Amino acid sequence: MLKNIKKNNIKIIVNNKYVQYNMFISKELEAGIALQGWEVKAIRKKKVNISKSYITIKNNSAYLIGALFQPIVACHPHLVYDQMRSRQLLLKKSELNSLIGYSKINGFTIVVCCLYWKNSYIKAKIGVAKGKTKHDKRLNIKNKEWKIKKMRLLKIKNIS
Predict the structure, then answer these.
(1) Quick one: which of 23, 53, 30 has its CA closest to 129?
(2) 54 in a domain, yes or no?
(3) Are 133 and 24 in contact (CB under 8 A)?
């Protein structure tokens, strides 16, 4: 009946480029975030920074720490906002147990890859990541440059 409705209407709000450049992501999950009203307004205005954020697990629940939400002062200038508060992530029990298992392994950290709208909900793509060495970063750059060079060569051959 209502065929024109998009089921997974996803719009990315913020990408965490720091994680993509400095870490290998081995597993990704989708989580909801428990936010206050002013934080949602800040997200709508894209006044969010998640570059140095990470996730910790306390009392069998996951929390987002280090994310900076800049309040819009015009809304309520008399209120005091805690910009760096820890925000609870909404996960299924099985997902939470797998994250607990990964967090106990040495070298793995749980980070936020991006924030996005899914229909009318704000979701976070979280990943279990391991840090890259300088050699890994250089190798990654070489591979990207080779792909670009290869595409140029193929384009020249197709033209002539």
Answers:
(1) 23
(2) yes
(3) no
- Which pTM does this prediction carry? 0.77
For residue range 54-72, list pLDDT tens digits in order.
Answer: 999 999 999 999 998 888 8
CATH number at residue 83: 2.40.280.10
Instruction: Report the distance separating Cα 34 and Cα 88, nearest Å.
Output: 6
Q: Whole domain around residue 105: which residue ranges?
A: 10-132
Tokens of residue 110, six digits? 């749980």
Residue 33 domain-assigned?
A: yes
What sign results for the dihedral spanned by CA atoms 50, 51, 57, 58? negative
Cα separation, 52 vs 50, in Å, equals 6
State the total domains in the chain. 1
- Strand 54-58, strand 10-15: pairing: unpaired
